[in-house]
Amino acid sequence: MTSESKFLLATLLRGSDVAPASIDWQALLELADSHGVLPLFCKKYSGKLPEIFESRVRSQWIAAAFLTSELEGLLEQFCAHGLEVLPLKGPLLAQALYGSPCLRSSDDLDLLVQRRDFNKARSLLIDLGFEPVYQADDYHQTFQRRNTCIELHFSVAAPASPSMDLDRAWDRARVVEFRQQKARFFSNPDLLIYLIIHGVKHEFARLVWVLDVARALADLSDEDLNEVFKVAKALGIEGAFLTSCELARYSSETVLPTQVAAAIARQPVISAQAHVLWERIVTGPANPQTAHQGASLFVRLEPDARSRWTQRMRCFRPSQQDHLWAQQHNINTRWILLLRPVRLLSKHGPGSAWRILFPRLEAKPPIS
């Protein structure tokens, strides 16, 4: 790690009022900003920061206030039209995990609706002046209105990734109040499962995604934790769950629940894989655009062969793009299952496709 990485992590963990004399403030700014933790860092650091930090944070606060206002208005509109909506990230998640919408930066709003309500919600957004940016895919559609970007979801991930039992999640979702507007929000176990799926899908390329998991994990009761274990096993992502918990320990010095620590101790490969991920996270500025092998990571994090095969088989589930491709080429959709592997090979190439399905297990000594 660079001295900037070490100082950033130490400040996030324990706070600080003195920076090393050799610190490169510009490098530190870009590091904290790229990892989505600049507001948290500035809150934890009580010393004098260069003006560029204060300027960048002010800009993020203004953006957070704008998104908060946009979310408030959208919640009011959805409620008026009888649509239940569950914000996945953005200001509501920041409020729930960090106590303020300003302490976790967001670029857009991710809104989950029930599948049966998707078309109605889509029409509402269009009536409110939002324009579709792309066609709807297997789990969401993007809309834009001036500076506001919205991802409208009816699922949390594409078919190639593990997906939650959303019917059950909706049943357990609680009603919360955000700026005097009602919204639904995941139960604590479902929130953690969602954050794990999201983090692994993006290879935990940003430190804030690890901190999200750490905060959500800290909010679990013993009963909640047992529920997360059951759900993770049912989804075949127990390895991803335990690895995420280990990353949470690295990032926040969290004392893991006894049940989690014991499960990790029984499978040393979990700590080894977490160490590899952690080194990638903290070695420099984040670049989430390069994180595109989430399917491979879901395979790699499972120490159990059966779970790894479960993840591999998900890659062969036909996508919306597969169906559209078949229609464009006048191919009967009954052949989709056979065409899916061909399209994967065409898109990724044999070498990359093989590395996604059969990634090399990386192992290094765990962090003590």
The neighbouring-strand order within the major sheet is 1-2-5-4-3
Structural class from helices and strands? alpha+beta
- Largest sheet entry: 5 strands, mixed
Overall 3D shape = globular
Question: How widely separated are the two ends?
Answer: 16 Å
Strand content: 5-15%
Uncertain residue ranges: none
Gyration radius, to the nearest Å?
21 Å
Number of helices: 17
User: What string gives the helices and strands in order?
Assistant: HHHHEHEHEEEHEEHHHHHHHHHH
Which helices and strands appear, and what pairs or packs with what?
Elements: H1 3-14, H2 25-34, H3 38-44, H4 51-80, E1 86-87, H5 90-98, E2 109-112, H6 118-127, E3 131-132, E4 140-145, E5 148-153, H7 166-172, E6 174-178, E7 181-185, H8 188-201, H9 207-218, H10 222-235, H11 238-252, H12 258-266, H13 268-282, H14 294-300, H15 305-314, H16 320-328, H17 336-357
Parallel strand pairs: 2-5
Antiparallel strand pairs: 1-2, 3-4, 4-5, 6-7
Helix pairs in contact: 8-9, 8-10, 9-11, 10-11, 11-13, 14-15
